[in-house]
Amino acid sequence: MFRRRTALSVSATAALLAAAPLLAACGADAHPGAAAVVDGKRITVSQLQAKVRDVREAQGKSPQGGQMISNTGRLSLATLNGLIFDEVLERAAKDAGVEVTRDDIQKWRAAAEKRAGGAERLKALWLQQAIAPDEIDAMVRNQLLLDGVAEHLGADRGQPQGQQKLAEALSKTSRSMGIDVNPRFGTWDDQEVILGETKDPWITTGRTAEQQQT
Predict the structure, then answer these.
(1) Is the dihedral of CA 21, 124, 78, 74 positive or negative?
(2) Which end of the chain is more exposed for a tag (fewer CB within 10 A), N or C?
(3) What is the number of structural domains in the chain?
(4) Which of 7-11, 34-38, 168-172, 182-186 has the lowest mean pLDDT?
(5) Does residue 178 carry a pLDDT above 70?
């Protein structure tokens, strides 16, 4: 899941989350202060908390903020899921020789804004999926990376066979990265390429908001 982000991950976030507070630093755990270690790179609890606060602050300013917060309660887990998946996708894209430019992102976002009925409408749709306004470009980039990796594999993301082929490639990448999640956040599943507690369908990450536009 493209989260934030996939993805995370973006799609079906509301159905996957239930109320939970921000989690504190790990203290005496194997990786003090780390929510996860991915290929030797630490994702710290403070980084995770900052991402969660960013979303909550944006949701709090929305007229539908209360409902958004209620629908995205276990945001810490969903956010960590997205952060880990981002690293896996980045590696898979690099291995496949896929690159995304700033111009690519701007074109995709401009088209999405047009379909949504304007930039503010698009921001509101993404926020419903727990993507803060300043994270939209990163989520768009993930979508383009996923499309690029799929194209490299000859996999059609719109078909079950294509999704399976892409999932197998990402699973292989995930296994190679030695992902270690702090137990209080759950366990990373290399096979499904998700944080076990979230069960977020990353393969459709990022497309929910786009579908809502139409």
Answers:
(1) positive
(2) C
(3) 1
(4) 7-11
(5) yes
Token couple for 127: 């926020």
Mean pLDDT, the chain, whole residue set = 80
CB 196 within 8 A of CB 186: yes
Residue appearing with tokens 């710290």: 44
Domain harbouring 58, CATH code: 1.10.4030
Cα distance between residue 142 and residue 126, in whole Å: 14
User: 51 pLDDT exceeds 50?
Assistant: yes
Residue 101 lies in a domain: yes
Spatial contact of 74 and 17, defined as CB atoms under 8 Å apart = yes
Q: Indicate the SS3 state at residue 195.
A: strand
Which of the four pLDDT bands, split at 50, 70 and 90, describes residue 112?
very high
Q: Which residues are CB-neighbours of 130 under 8 A, at least 6 positions away? A: 4, 8, 10, 13, 17, 55, 59, 68, 72, 75, 78, 79
Q: Tokens 């995930």 belong to which residue?
A: 174
| Residues forming beta bridges with residue 34, ordered by sequence position | 44
β-bridge mates for residue 206, sequence order: none
Cβ(152)–Cβ(98) below 8 Å: yes
**Worst-scoring range by mean pLDDT, 71-75, 95-99, 132-136?**
71-75
Whether residue 62 lies inside any domain: the answer is yes
The two tokens of residue 28 are: 């005496």
Q: What is the pLDDT of residues 16-49, one digit of tens each?
A: 333 233 333 333 355 678 999 999 999 999 999 9
Q: Which domain holds residue 97?
A: 13-209
Q: Which ranges in 61-135 belong to alpha helices (H)?
A: 65-71, 75-96, 102-116, 119-128
